[in-house]
Amino acid sequence: NSGSAAVEAALEVARAPYRIVSAATWDKTAAFDELKRVNPLHQIPTLVTPDGTVLSESAAILIHLGLAHPRAKLLPADASQRAQAIRAMVFIAANCYAAIGVIDYPERWHGKGDKLADERLRKGARRRLHKLWSIFADTFASDKNSAFLFGAQVGAADVLAAVVSRWSGARKHLAKQRPVFHALLERIDADPKVAPV
Q1: CA 151/CA 170 separation, integer angstroms
Q2: Structural contact between residues 152 and 146, judged by C-beta atoms closer than 8 angstroms
Q3: Residue 156: closest CA among 112, 90, 95
Q4: What is the DSSP string of 120-144?
Q5: Cβ distance 82 to 149 under 8 Å?
Q6: What is the pLDDT of residues 126-181, one digit of tens each?
Q7: For the whole model, what pTM was predicted?
């Protein structure tokens, strides 16, 4: 769900077996305790591999899954294209996802109790987020001859872009400002392995 959807979709594309543990920071259950044991930041998603290795950060998990399941083609086989796919995922994580963190939790940046400051910070971060998505579209999705960002089938960068672009009005912005990229995101959403997630 939500923050873990990109990883879940990648696991589906890879046809890798997995078990979902539903946990949330606002719901202190046994599942949350399990999450705390493996990830001190309590981040979702967190992936524990069969050998016990703990991975957090969506982009890192997606890169790992791409390397661990090369037949799934989550990452391009071509080294130059693979480098760009990794760059695209890190761009989303470092820029877009970071802006969403400010929008969702402005008090983390200036302290609690100032509703006006919260709203100003949200507004500015949302403006920045939409600009970042436009830059992403211009950098990674312009003049594409392929069905998806880096090839003929859905890859890791595609699922991360499709999930993170659903937040904070980004899709509405992209429909108006970058309709070709918006159409690509809709193709990703409709992919038979991605759509159920």
Answers
A1: 23
A2: yes
A3: 90
A4: HHHHHHHHHHHHHHHHHHHHHSTT-
A5: no
A6: 999 999 999 999 999 976 678 899 999 999 999 999 999 999 999 999 999 999 99
A7: 0.93
